[in-house]
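Board work, copied verbatim: Idonate transporter
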Amino acid sequence: MSILSVVICIALLVLLTARWNINPFIAFLITAISGGVMLGIPLDKIPDSVEKGMGGILGSLTAIICLGAMFGKLIADSGAAQKITAVLIQFCGEKYIAWALMLTGFFVGIPLFYNVGFVLLVPLVFSVAYQTKLPAVYLGIPLLAALSVTHGFLPPHPSPTALVPQFQADMGLTLIYGLVVGLPTMMIAGPIFSRFLKNIHSEPLSTFTPQIIPDHALPSTGKSFFVALLPVLMLSLASVLTPLLAEQIQFKPYVSFFGNPLMVMLVSLIIATYSLGLARGHTLKSIMQTYTQALKDISVILLIIAGAGALKQIFVDSGVSTEIAAGLKNIPVNPLFLGWLIALIIRICLGSATVAGLTAAGIVAPLVLASPSINPNLMVLAIGAGSLMCSHVNDSGFWMYKEYFNLSLKQTFASWSVMETIVGTLGLIGVLLLDVFV
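↓ predict structure ↓
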């Protein structure tokens, strides 16, 4: 009966968000409360579970995600993202321009949240298309594949960042494994796949013609790359130094302090504020206004994460999570594949990759925590891969891509949906291969 209640909860969440267009945060709260009633939690205890779930998941994430949003917004508004794009295109040349745009999506996509990266970078794709006369879809898919990889696999993006503490994984190792899996994935789903899309011609809407910042107003190449990649460098360095300095007790507190994701994002933001802002003549007031706008952009994502935490806590407090974990243990399938499959099913039903990842995590977390043989870092990536699969008409990204590139539904399915499915499938294959060696 309890398993049936979970199925009903997921079905209710699908109906509320996909059928009746209820705000995801409200939908999660309604589903969590309904689930608590069905699963037998006393009525007076349900609000406590909801509040505990929301506070528990946001407690460790709010600062990281908010700092990451501010950091990415400054990267965009300062012109650092445009500078990175220009340098990579110049370096690769027109022959390898699709690869240059893939690298742009990767480097710029690490600090930028997906929707912000999409809105910022897609007009740059159109600018390149106008200059080179190459098909916009052929140029855009490599960049969007890279953005999808960073969104699904790499901290500090919301979904992987939220999954790390749920599985008691390591942020730095998850990032390193994500890079190992993500780089070949975006190469195949991006430049290699896009070769088959040259016959898809589109006329991007003139509305999305980019407003280019003059070259003299852009930050330097070294500064742009260094600041944009600073969080990755700090997290990776901390993961490498931790085992190397295991016996050097005097250095351990410093590595732990500066390798903590919160400190990584705070230090990165302080350096970016000075080097991309104050040092280039921007006032502190204007920079703070940029940060305020960034917080407005990320508020919806934070609420969705909070709602997912409430539903997860209902499952935990009712005991159904433990029951599900015990049932999954007996299924003769790799647990990483199970996590991927659950995220895939929810993604197809709900559309949102973030919601799919967080909901799947709430279901499989007890299994991961109860089984030392399951690598929690790889489970983060497996669920991330599943949450990117089979994007279709209930995914906002599907419609953004269709409208920006001015495509038909058939063309959108043939390019965008296939690309997202390639990313999710290759991501799973990469995770399973990595599981053999780590």
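The chain has a mean pLDDT of 84.
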